[in-house]
User: Fold these one by one.
Assistant:
Number 1:
Amino acid sequence: MKKTGVLIATCLIAASAVFWGCRKPTDNTQTNPTDGFDKSAMLTNYADNVIAIRYLNMREKVAALKSASDSYAATPSSATQSALLSAYKDAYLQYEIIAPFQFGPAETALLDVYLNYSGGLDYSFTTAGELTGFSVDTATIESNISSGSYNLTTVSRSNLYAQGFGAIGYLAFSSDAISRMTGNTARAKYLGDLVSRMKDLVDGVINNWTAYRTTFVGNTQTNVGSPIGNIVNQLAYQLDMVKGPRIGWPFGKQSNGTVFATKCEGYYAGISKELAEMSIAALKDSYTGGGGLGIDDYLVSLKQDALNTDVLAQFDMTIAKVKAIPGSLSAAFTANPTEVDAAYKEIQKLLTLLKTDVASATAVQITFTDNDGD
Amino acid sequence: MNNHYIKALVICGIAITSISSCKKKDKNEDPSVRAYTVPTTYSFGNENYASSTTRVKMAVELDSYLKTANAGSTTISLLDSKITGMWNNTGNQFSDAGLNASGLNLSSVTADANLYKSYADSVRISNTGTAASQGTAGYIVRGTNKIIVGPRGLEYGQAYTKGIMGALLFKEAVRLLTSVKTMSVKDTAAAQAAWDEAFGYLAVPANYDTSVTYVNTDPNRPLLWGGYLAERGRDIQAGGIIFAAFLKGRAAIGGYDRTVRNQQVDVILDKWEQLAAAAALAYVTSPTTSSAAGNLGTQFHALSEGFGFILSLQHRAATSKLSAADFTTLNNIIHKDFYDLINQTGFTDLVTAQNILKNTYGL
């Protein structure tokens, strides 16, 4: 009888082995690690304490920008211009803070594309004449103003380079901006239209988040298009933007050292360095869930404490190195290449951590690059 | 031997046989089913899929040749003799001598062969060093390289490659596997031959492993559809499911197991078609994202891949979930001028295509 028991047990093991052997091989994909971490609580923190608050701040800053730009357009003077510069800088820096949340309603509205077009990561940055990086298409802007007929919603390169923060910067802060604005109602109208469009887009995204929040909080998967997948992808994407269009490319990293000083972010306002610094700080803010439950805590729950420590330290190191660049970025590209290069190297290290290590630890596939090699 | 012992052995035997064929408990109508085991690699002692593997390699070599035009910013001309020779396998144009000597070619097994040949030819013809714009064929910068597009933005090289993935590889796999379903269960030799040839069109190594990341220098790496199993099929576990079904169905043929054999045909065709749809979905979606907006090279490359994958749905099995009407809608959208598609406010047409693919295939 005992023997039989053993035999039956052996038989069951054999049978189950055969049974398991027949199962479909699993793909090495997005099965969520069973970590006991409350991902839904983390997403709730992102939705309510991070994203919602930062969007509402953005709404306020854009409203302030609107009133400052209206005053400037009505009475262009160095006083209204400097008030506008302050509002513009506030709104632009706040935009860097919300840029890591370019998914869901922001992605549907193409918020990043209309507010702060960067030309894309897959675009050669080797010739001066081409519209790349944070170029401003002054020719299209001028022709839009003189013709008075333009459709700002069209998704074409020249149209995108004729609106958003870059175009507003040109109309407000380029060298003879005040004199060209004076008495020019068409120019004033165009500036007004650009800021109004910015306001409408931000309002639209905020309104659509109300409905999207349920989907966002309820989806704890990490596959392509999932909230966690999107958060991690954006960490990598936005930092790739710092490495590329924000600092590396205008510095000449794609053009054998040929500098394109005018193609940096916020060029006309001279705030490129502050924007780059804020962009990285904003990514740290997103990474840490604004101090609440964030990707950092998720990593710790996955027993990736060491990686988390490295990432946090590298964030601080990178921000410090960008801060250490003297003067404005566009001047530093030629005046202080050593400091720019030192910052660039730290950005690369941080990018590897986020794009490779964090993505892999969280089982997130980085999807914004077409890396299929064909 | 005592009674319990015998009883246990019998029970054990029954348990293992019934489970090892991996069958759901159904009434076994076919009395001639015999025990068989499903291997973990595609090795059955008599498998042979050289013909389909050869055609896949030919398709890849022609693709690589066409892509030489994409390198860098200078114009690199292509030769008609080379393209036509590879297409028909004349004049020893392949660098792999085995392909030249195979006696096989791409042209005779591709549906709408003239169309796909003309896409390959058009890469050469439009590769003139002219910058493309709406209405004018030429090149468009893509990263540090370029793509060769027609007057409506279609990248001809992708139309060729993704096109024949459908019109040759997938079409043949559907034809072969569907034919197996109609074969007598005793006709194992014919069924195994057809099954093997279909497997070759998937283009994965016999010891395919979804957990392995194949580097592009690995001579055993998956090619074309095989590569897409991982590239666009991860979320739907296409690699694991299709490969397992190929193993199981092939084993079932040897076991005279018609039910399992036919089930695996359905599993493969259903998943393979879903893979084509998943790839199509990715490529009609990425051009609408903020990271691609305004970047014609990236957008048109993706749309051209999507073009090929949508065309491959034309060769779907009769059991497909995709209605004729929805296919027509998809086909009409992807045949539109790409310059118009990417300039539509809200990307209306591409969103329509996305929704059809998502809803039909549960993506």
Number 2:
Amino acid sequence: MVAKFDLNDDSVVVIIGTGAGGGVLANELAQKGVKVVALEAGGRYLPEDYINDEWDSFGQLAWLDARTTSGSWRVHKDFATLPAWIVKAVGGTTTHWAGASIRFQDHEWKALTTYGAVEGANLLDWPIDSAEMAPWYEKAEEKLGVTRTGNRPGLPGNNNYLVFEKGAKALGYKEVHTGRMAIQSSDTTGNRISCQQTGFCFQGCKWGAKWSAAYTDIPEGEATGNLEVRERSHVARILHNEAGKVTGVEYFDKDGALQMQKARIVCVAGNSFESPRLLLNSASSMFPDGLANSSGMVGKNYMRHTTGSVYAIFDKPVRMWRGTTMAGIVQDEARHDPSRGFVGGYELETLSLGLPFMAAFLNPGGWGRGFTTALDHYENMAGMWIVGEDMPQLTNGVTLSETKDQHGLPVANVNFDDHPNDVAMRNHAYKQGIAMYEAVGATRAFPTPPYPSTHNLGTNRMSEKAKDGVVNKWGQTHDIANLFVSDGSQFTTGAAENPTLTIVALAIRQADHIASEMSAGNI
Amino acid sequence: MTRHDLRGLTRRQLLTRSLSAGALAVVGTGFIAAPDAAWAVEVTAITPEQMATLLQMARDIYPHDQVPDRFYAVAVKGYDSAEQKDFVAEGVTALDAAAKAAGFDSYVAAGWEEDRVKLLQSIETTPFFQTIRAGLVTGLYNQKEVWPIFGYQGESYSQGGYIERGFNDIDWL
């Protein structure tokens, strides 16, 4: 029984976005009996709709509405209108993510204290810590069915992993395994079908073996009768009253008509570009700099993880595309060890791209035989991805662009420059990744530049003090009690780990808080 | 994509009708064809010489010696349109001007890939070159028929994935 709420029903919680943050929050609130209207800009696609074809899938799922870029990052040069490779669909980027689900390390909640002040960086400690988050992480791991947690076995390693593992061990790395993945690894420990090693994890798992909100939390929430998901509904602005409390949202519905949905509480979960964009586009005479922006931090401190890839060619076939896309991890470099020339750490995780995307991303803009002789040996290629903590910087972030979208709304401009710490970390990781592959006999290696961002963090960051960030430790905005942020834009710092598990844990925790505050009549 | 099978024509007929013969393709009236007549591309908006230039550019930008011409022809066929006609004409004229300045009759007439690559480098920052190059990334590499040449297997769900088809079959480690 799917709920249907009236536009004038001001008792509902409106959630904007249905990904790892919004989708989970919607279900968790619905399970507690809270009435929820979730507004999702994208359409609804399920496993039967997903396509085992990189470009066709990209056309189906990716967020392709206008965005602009600036800054010295290479993405601005090569993919000027595509700062991120994320999804516009019910379930958000949980359809696209690889499934890596690892907890922050204890010290990463306290980056400023642990690393000390770093010149040019705007580091801050989170107002929460690992002890606070441990029970929520456990709930998140249960929800996602994370391998190597609970009684769930690890996934088997594919060809790409076996090369990676041998190289890692040759270098003396100890923390090498097939990852903690939100992918079903056995038929007896969860309710999803187990991984069939199909590849195409980024294109939506056609087996539903990987956790995605699209076919887990969203339908579970709808089944309670407390959740209505309105797809193809693009929120234009958040409205407020004279008391400075939010009262609802205006959105363009699937037919392009402007609608207004009243709300008791509004939760923004549109990812680190769209969430700050919406707060900025909601500026009013009372809040001329945008909603929840008394600190001036809305849109600032954007982080995208220090990424990059290493691909290498061997004299014999690897066929890296077979099986789980992110099939294993090396965690030895995730520690904080400034003797390496940078603060924070990074993970190395296997990655593969199909031939079409390899052509687009191996060396964007590259041509001639230097480029094509690499692709000639595609079958003999192995690949890994670097994901490390990058430095929050005031100048990195989202502002409103001169460009307008199909609804006439200013789009997000994403400005980014690497911090010297990011560059030092990436170069270290390139060196280690290449050494791993050379230890297995690679004949040629490629330090591949970062792709359009998939880990988008920090543009509405969490802070203890209102002057340092946008939201408090519950994701509640410092300025407006009934306005919350529920996605990765809350991140105070990025840590070295893939962010989804933390986004989910924060969403479960936030649902608990919102429900109890509603019961207490506080919001 | 329009591709005419010209197996009915003899090699001699094709050669007789050709206007010029580059390293890549034989150019006839309204079409260009492989020297062995295994394939041909009909052109309606741009000239056969212009299409031959685009084909040679495609081969020089993304040279894969094991990939037959017909895949490159498919990748650039879309430029044969009323909308692209002037864009192609201006770009080819500029490229040929660069070739003449370097002592060649035309870009296509430069026999060595190395020489042609230098000519392309001289126009690398132009919208013409950048458009052709960027278009090839999908135009060439997203042809499903090309994938087996690189060993890439494409779609796998309908075959049950690789769980029983070699996801971990590496035998040389």
Number 3:
Amino acid sequence: MSIKSIDPRITREELPEVPDNSPLKEIHHWQTYEVFHQAKTGDHHVHVGSLHAPNSEMALILAKEQYARRYNCVNLWVVKTTDIFRTSNDEEEIFQTTPEKIYREAGGYKVMDRINKFKGK
Amino acid sequence: MYGGGYIFEESKNTESGTEDSVKLKNFEDRIAAGEKIEPADWMPAEYRKQLIRMIEQHAHSEIIGALPEGTWITRAPGFRRKLALMAKVQDEVGHAQLLYSAAETLGKPREDMINDLITGKSKYSNVFNYPAVTWADTAVIAWLIDAGAIINQVANSKGSYGPYCRALERICVEESFHLKYGHDNVVFLATGTPKQREMVQEALNRWWPPIMHFFGPSDKISVHTETLMRWKVKMASNDDMRQKFLDMYVPKIWELKLTIPDPKLKKNEETGKWDYTEPDWDEFKRVINGDGPCNKERLAVRRRAEEKGEWVRKALMRPDERYTVPLS
């Protein structure tokens, strides 16, 4: 006995009525790629997610389907996940004092008070 | 498409001494402060487990949810509707991809999830165990099931796990097209000929009980989710989401002069909430456990697709390939 579906294409598949609960014989994993998307020329490429692909060319094809099937896109990059080096999340403290370095920022230089005082003299 | 009615596992040891108390406190403080948790961050084992379970169920629901609608692509009435339905079904499969990636960042490889789906170990949304009998069913699914999904997914996108939130943000944008597309189809039928009205009314009659099931069992009988809510894994109670759905969509159904097949359904002026006939939770449990009209077909179709694609995946494999967990 096979499954009778309202979809004739499924009925024609002659799928077994008795459920097959056996696990997959072999489990194959393609490598993962990270995808970067540029919405228009002049913009930065922005990381939008990841995907599985057997090689870079396929990764680009799949990235177009997955991340650029609507709205604007002018360019895509794919990078093997293993090729990305990153700081570890528990080293966050290496950035901790950065916001304190106001001598590196425009806002760290306020001269109007001094100028006004000078003018007022 | 999907979002609701996750089945959480009964939590054990969530707050017991099995976790490092300093780390746990730091983790909970971060969540309370509205920070997102990222894949490489410390997290309690229970958080990881429940998130994998939830995101995986969500992903399976997208991939299985593509089947009842996908059936109608070849029979869509007209070229424009065929294009639109293909786009919608492709979106659902794309959502599954995004969600599988988010779940993978927690440490469960994708093919292991597929394996658990086709062996019946993991669940997917119960609504997809019902058939789309006519074209009007696809219209009702695209409008109301996707509406329910949006309510749930918008809530969950404010959750605590970064990769899941990011996936949901993209998904919600696409779902808004599904909702408009579904509404357009329902309105077209409901304002059409008597035969078209009859078709859409019958589809609504068929889909109303699964829609009421969609957000999951009533809070009175569902698994204790206090910890999951504090950890911002579950963002709203099942009953609250159901109420929100009724608030937003019952008036839109009624304005088309369609009848909702529940004589008890009305807004209670005193409580400000909707009264309705309690959905049949025994049926819900029976169907989730395999005894629905389409459970066998859905899993058999998924398994056949997996088997038929195997030689392609194998042919493209390279011996030096190593699976890595995606970054985010």
Number 4:
Amino acid sequence: MVRSGTLILSVAARLLLPLQLLFSLFLLLRGHDEPGGGFIAGLVASGAFALYLFAYGGRAMHAMLKVSPRDLIGFGLTLGVLSTLPALWQGEPFFTAQWWTIPLLDFKASTPLLFDVGVYLVVLGSVLTAITALVDTDREDDA
Amino acid sequence: MQLAVLGGFVMAGMAPLLHRWFGERTPLVMALLPAALAVWLLARWPAIAAGEVLLLEWAWVPGLDITLSFYLDGLAWLFAMLITVIGSLVLVYTGDYLRGHRDLPRFLVVLTAFMMSMLGLVLADNLVTLFVFWELTSITSFLLIGFNHGDLSARRAAQQGLYVTAGGGLALLAGFVMLAMAGGSWSLAELTARGDALRDHALYLPLLACLLVGAFTKSAQFPFHFWLPSAMAAPTPVSAYLHSATMVKAGVYLLARLHPALGGTDAWTLSLSLVGAFTMLTGAFLAIHHTNIKKLLAYSTVMALGTLTMLLGLGTPGALVAFVAFLLAHSLYKGALFMVAGILDHETGTKDVTHMGGLRRVMPRTAMVAAVAALSLAGMPPLLGFVGKELMLESALGAEHYRLPVVVLAFVASFLTLAVAAIVALRPFFGTLRRTPRTPHEAPPGMLAGPALLAALSLLLGLAPGRLDDLVMATVAGLGAVDHEVHLSLWHGINLPLLLSLASLVLGLAVWHRWDRLRARLARLRPLMARGPEAGYEALMAGMVAGAEWQTRMLQNGHIRNYLVVTLLTLLGLVGHALFFRHAPSLDVPVEAYLHEAVVAGLMVAGAVAACVMRSRLAAVAAVGIMGFSIALVFVLFSAPDLAITQLLVETLTVILLVLVLFRLPRFATLSTPTERARDVVVAGLSGLMITLLMLSVLAGERLPRISDYLIANSQPQGHGHNIVNVILVDFRALDTLGEMFVLALAAIGVLAMLRFHAGDHEVGRSLPREHDDG
């Protein structure tokens, strides 16, 4: 059902995809202090890929994404679980947040950030899994 | 020690890798682990024999008072020794029994994991730890019984074993919780010291009942005995190890361990000795019905487990000594006999003893081992089995309650067991050589080593039972009979037990002699037997399936409108009950709203109404969208930017998903009758009203201290973030978020499964390779 769209949509999607992805990363990183965070950023990124998919079709989107959306879910869950472990290393209870400052960039690295990246990947992966599954069944019907 | 057990699990996982390196020799290599543990245990023997108790402490979940502490006294030492020694022999045996088998690595993984679970079970000091290992043995046993999973009967037997033992496990868990509540500790060492307080506690009877169900299911006591003979579908090393020497003794072990804490009351004595004695008789009686050598042995194991339970029930120091001696003797001869049964099956291709004969000429060594082990089973001097049986009869004669029935049952069981021993040892090896599906040869050395060693031990320890005095004394001390002097000997002089033994010899040989005719007569009892506990189990299972089918038809029928109605009605009932009967709903709330708030609320209502009356699907979707965006506006008005952004994005993505779905749906049509629609309106209206009332009551009710104050105060200092919503999500409530991540992932998998694999599309595999050309 989903075929390559109109010229305007194609050009817009090509321009918007990087911008939207940058924006989603921005939302992700600032999420701890300003509105944003992994969930919202993940939704924005899924919106970006969905737009691209409408413009160029599922195959092109997969080529752009490089990995399967299902693998993204797996990565996200793994990252979420891994981010709980440094606390055990420090002898603190499971899930205690750990904070490190990277000196040169003055950037606060932390396990909550890692965890948020996990949320981001799971949200992105889940939405894209659902969307691509719907698009693929469409193609089956056409064939 | 804890490291050794945990390391053993790691080694179990590495079995496939080891198999790549060592090939057919892998079982031998893996046998080194239990052998090393046995050596470690032997090195601890002087301390144990001196009556010391080793407590190896190891915190696990300190917050919940759960430790991985191991507790090594005489009782644990004896069991651990049996597990490690027989475990290494079984691994060596497996090397030849499953030589060249495709799934050998899988077998080794599960068998080693079982071994470690069993070891953890008998060493654990903490009730929770013990329970975890207990369940692990049930699961590994399930996997091992179902090892030949292509075989329907093996799968059924595996399920049966799992349901019975895991069902008992649930009762056991309840019993443990009550035990910890009554005793005020999760540590077995501390609980055994508080016996008097436990026996007088109000929870004593319920906790005892739960623990007994757990122990009886595991140790195949009547009426749960039926799973054990079915479990013979497992490969023979498993039968020899799990279903005779170790796992089935876990229940008996638990009873023995709890004997000092709970034993000695009338309820304990009565239930254990009667159930034990009845199990003993059932096992011995059912054994002679069968011609399958493994079933014969399995029922005689049931008989032995019943004996052990009965001895614990009698509970006199003499009975406890008999318990230890009988336990040791049984593990040695039954392990050996099962391995011999495996050899016979392996060499002749049949398990039916009536199809074998004269094998002593082709496999003399096996015949020798079988004869020694069977003599011990029969309780003949000078084998260890004789010592065990004499002590057992003596304790039965010394019973304080129900002496006569206990003695009669013990006597009947002992002559039937003798007949079983004669059938197992004489039938296959004597008489004329019979044609069997495979041409028999002498067993390979790896398969012969295990049973030969166990049979030799039966003989040596039988000749010099005094060597066991220290061990029995240390073990009996763990059972509560501290400082009881023990002197085992072969010859007790001419006394009543000896006379009973002689009588049982005569009767047993008579049964053996007329076995074929007896079996034909017993066959007439079949219709009666078909109504036994196993039929009850089958009926229960069938009932469960029928119940599941019924509730699926009624509740899970796949119509989302029915789900909604049921969910909403349940909500109405529960919330309504709480609201009207527990709290008087109050409408006394001053409702103040600014104009713009009223407009937004009006938009929402308009959207909802429009969605219901629209005649086109696209318009309905748009109307729902209006509602969603209005909700986002509400979030903005009440300064929750994060929620507003999320709501907007979710609305957008919903539209995208709906667009994709819309094309696939059939034409918009009205399928419901006016009555159904009227019903839906009522349900929906009532739900809305109820929620409104609920919200108003919440607002009117007294203010509890609000969690948000805490969160606002601590978000920056503790969570290092100014965005409170995000700090809650990734720090304060990160565990919830992690759970929701998994829910989201599962939902995505669900969507994928629903769309990819259509109902009725049996060629699931066909659509799988597609994903690669996509990616």
